[in-house]
Design a protein that fits this description.
With 402 residues, the chain is an alpha/beta fold. It has three domains: 118 residues, NAD(P)-binding Rossmann-like Domain (Rossmann fold, 3-Layer(aba) Sandwich), CATH 3.40.50; 159 residues, Rossmann fold, CATH 3.40.50.720; 89 residues, Ribosomal Protein S8, Chain: A, domain 1 (2-Layer Sandwich). Helix content is 38%, strand content 14%. The chain has 16 helices and 14 strands. The strands form three sheets. The chain has a six-stranded parallel sheet with strand order 7-6-8-9-10-11. Strands 2-1-3-4-5 form a five-stranded parallel sheet. A three-stranded parallel sheet has the order 12-13-14, covered by helices on one side.
């Protein structure tokens, strides 16, 4: 079979090459002419490629896979009508996005001089990503408030609160799909009214979809100090983002929250498995060897002293955790790289944004790092385990992280 795929999907040749001939090219360069000329039967994309009648009509494509958790770039009704098989990768990079949020929280706490323990976090959307964010934030001692209207209706569980109950939280983090119609439409749900109801000292985090936030309204409240700060990984007009808004946010990154190597490879593998099932072929490729990091010796570090004041200890524990997180992912570097976009002409910015994503360096998830503690420390080890780090105990050369 002939497979046309986005060249930025990791290991796309290694995986799909076991099933047929793979033609790769940039996602924004996948056109109807390309599909017709190659006589492609399979199309594998990411979120930058819109898939609908204009792209597929007249082609031989019978299977479409997206190596993403979101599907708003696909016309699912059209695919169903044309009996084109469809597969996505729900949850593939959920842990990556959750770790991004934790990295952002730790960065803000360190920079602004406060402790996360005791702070409140409102999680809007409690699916694959939001549920992981909630678990990790609770491990850090944060008070987590959950909002998910569809889950509230389907489960009747009182833990799913109305949106108004989250408006007094220190942080609000968005983990919703982009939907334009219906009872739970999320298109520009964070508008002037939403922002006016947030606390003046609260912080907004968006890693869902850019169009969930009305950027004009957000610029106004940030300029006026109506909310304390914002963290944006997604933007309303990608790849041509609003550089004025970038100048106002505390952290800005180029839609890479889910870009851990683990998350990207998981997405490839999920779509690969779906195509194998559709084709009736036995999978011949597995990503285990790529993701294995067990040969790396665990990082040793001294325990946080227990004979100090609890407030100081909390700060020190968060500093140690922040240092470990920066070992794997320094979110400030992504922010600094995106801010260089302001040095470019307007017509060059879109290509630069895409290049940051295409050339994104390898980033591993927390579970890839083993941590050896010199002695058992229930608080520190409990938090690290809940965040995903591999913990062991023993005496060795100790290294404290700054």
């Amino acid at each position: 079979m002939i497979i046309v795929a986005d060249e930025n999907i990791p290991l796309v040749q290694e995986a799909f090459g076991t099933l047929g001939q793979v033609v790769t090219l940039p996602g924004r360069s996948i056109t109807a002419d390309v599909l017709r000329q190659t006589k492609a039967e399979v199309l594998i994309v990411r979120s930058v490629t819109g898939v609908g009648p204009e792209l597929l009509r007249g082609s031989s494509v019978r299977f479409v896979g997206t190596a993403t958790i979101g599907t708003d770039h696909l016309d699912l009704a059209f695919l169903k009508k044309e009996k084109i098989e469809f597969a996505s990768a729900p949850g593939c990079n959920a842990n990556s996005v959750a770790e991004y949020v934790i990295a952002a929280l730790l960065f803000l706490a360190r920079g602004k001089g406060f402790n996360l323990e005791g702070k409140s976090l409102g999680v809007i959307g409690v699916g694959n990503v939001g549920s992981r964010v909630a678990t990790k934030a609770q491990a850090l001692g944060m008070k987590v408030l959950l909002n998910d209207p569809p889950l509230a209706r389907s489960t009747g569980e009182p833990r799913y609160l109305p949106l108004e109950a989250l408006m007094d939280a220190d942080f609000l983090t968005l983990h919703v799909p982009l939907t334009r119609e219906g009872l739970d439409a999320t298109y520009q749900m964070v508008n002037e009214d939403f922002l006016a109801r947030m606390r003046p000292d609260s912080i907004l985090i968006n890693t869902s979809r850019g169009l969930v936030v009305d950027e004009k309204a957000l610029k106004v409240v940030l300029r006026n100090g109506r909310i304390a700060a914002a963290v944006l990984d997604v933007w309303e007009h990608e790849p041509s983002i609003d550089v004025q808004l970038l100048g106002l946010v505390a952290l800005g990154t180029p839609h890479i929250a889910g870009y851990s190597l683990d998350g990207k490879v998981n997405g490839t593998f999920m779509v690969y498995q779906a195509l194998c099932r559709y084709s009736g072929l036995q999978p011949q490729w597995r990503p285990d060897e790529v993701l294995s990091n067990r040969k790396q010796p665990p990082l040793s570090l001294d325990n946080v002293p227990q004979d100090i004041e609890e407030v100081q200890r909390t700060r020190q524990v968060e500093d140690v955790i922040g240092g470990l997180v920066r070992q794997l992912y320094d979110i400030q570097k992504d922010d600094a790289n995106l801010r260089k976009i302001t040095e470019l002409n307007a017509e060059e910015r879109g290509a630069y944004f895409d290049r940051l994503r295409k050339e994104y360096p390898v980033r591993r998830e927390f579970h890839s790092l083993g941590v050896k503690l010199s002695r058992q420390d229930k608080k520190l080890s409990g938090i690290l385990k809940a965040l995903g780090f591999r913990i062991s105990y023993g005496i060795g050369k100790h290294k404290m992280l700054s």
